[in-house]
Design a protein that fits this description.
This protein has three helices and 39 strands. The chain has 346 residues and is α/β, with parallel strands linked by helices. It starts with a strand and ends with a helix.
Length: 346
């Protein structure tokens, strides 16, 4: 499908600077723009690509002022990043919908399947599963007994959901994710370890997205909970009895030990490690590769290991850079002291 720059501007409530009748039929990255495509500029680091891109139309923020002459057509909008997100979602939704139930799927007799559902090849659905409307279950998904899945949720290939877990509405769970495996619970017993039965479940509330190959363990007792609107990246480990707050976002390779509670609207970078049995407040920002050994109050930004307030971490980094120079100075002072001692002894 083709759209003019003016049509796109009207849809996004933007302003065209340039040729409003120029047409685009696809999207592209600004550093790899192609003719007849639309791209966007939201990060100042990419400003220089605006003057060389081959894309036909570029979305920019309304307050953007070019530093050089621009040959492409611009569409000025309030927020270029959110506008490109709208367009990407439109493109994604335009793809043909999967429908029907593949003949190789195995579904327990006492599980009711709505007509609006899609179930892909070699999927297994256990006893007493409750499935909402418009669910999409891609091939090779496993859904255990007594699982509940809400309306409009998508499970991508190879997702595994163990028994008794609850998945909310409008969720998206990407390939290879495992929800409800046993928590890591063992008790020392005469020189070995005795397994502690994990009899709880996992609850994923509405509007949650979980990336590929993430694992969320079932609770020992009660529930491991990911609250409404949370977004988890790929390769995250969420241990037993953890709670992740509403609208919290967590980047890849983060590990959260058992019984830790993370608040609402937090932003957590990649490879962050959380100790167990601690509480993280609301609106906490944590930089990548930080280690969190203790409770954290709300409305702070932390970096480092062990994590400290961002300004303190920045001062520490400055001092670390000076360590070779300080070490040299200390050695010189030690030599002077030794020389003075020898003179005094004489």
């Amino acid at each position: 499908m083709e759209f003019t720059a003016q049509q796109i501007a009207d849809f996004l409530q933007g302003e065209v600077i340039g040729d409003g009748q120029i047409k685009v039929n696809n999207l592209s990255k600004i550093d790899d723009g192609q003719p007849e495509t639309l791209t966007f500029l939201a990060n100042p680091k990419y400003n220089h690509y605006l003057y060389t891109t081959r894309a036909s139309v570029v979305l920019v923020n309304r307050d953007f002022i070019p530093e050089e002459k621009v040959s492409v057509t611009l569409i000025k909008v309030d927020d270029a990043y959110s506008c490109i997100a709208q367009l990407l979602n439109m493109v994604n939704q335009a793809r043909p919908e999967k429908k029907g139930i593949d003949s190789t799927a195995v579904i327990a007799a006492n599980t009711s399947v709505p007509q609006s559902i899609y179930i892909g090849a070699f999927t297994f659905i256990g006893e007493n599963v409750k499935l909402g409307e418009n669910i999409k279950i891609y091939p090779q998904v496993y859904i255990g007994d007594n699982v509940t899945i809400g309306d409009n949720t998508t499970l991508y290939p190879g997702v595994k959901i163990y028994h008794d877990c609850v998945i909310g509405k409008d969720c998206m769970i990407h390939a290879g994710t495992v929800i409800g495996a046993d928590g890591f619970g063992f008790a020392p017993n005469n020189g070995s370890y005795q397994k502690i039965a994990q009899i709880g479940n996992v609850i994923i509330e509405d509007h949650v997205e979980i990336g590929a190959n993430t694992t969320i363990d079932r609770a020992t007792m009660g529930s491991t909970i990911v609250h409404e609107g949370a977004k988890l990246d790929n390769l995250i480990q969420v241990a037993h009895n953890v709670e992740v707050g509403s609208n919290t976002v967590i980047a890849a390779q983060t590990g959260i030990a058992g019984s830790t509670k993370i608040g609402n609207n937090c932003m957590i970078g990649g490879q962050v490690g959380f100790a167990g049995h601690i509480t993280i407040g609301d609106r906490v920002n944590i930089g990548a590769q930080s280690g969190i050994p203790n409770h954290v109050k709300s409305d702070v930004t932390l970096l480092g290991y062990p994590a400290v307030p961002a300004r303190e971490f920045a001062r520490s980094v400055v001092m670390i850079k000076k360590l070779p120079e300080l070490n040299k100075t200390i050695r010189e002072l030690q030599e002077e002291i030794e020389n003075l001692k020898k003179k005094i002894d004489k």
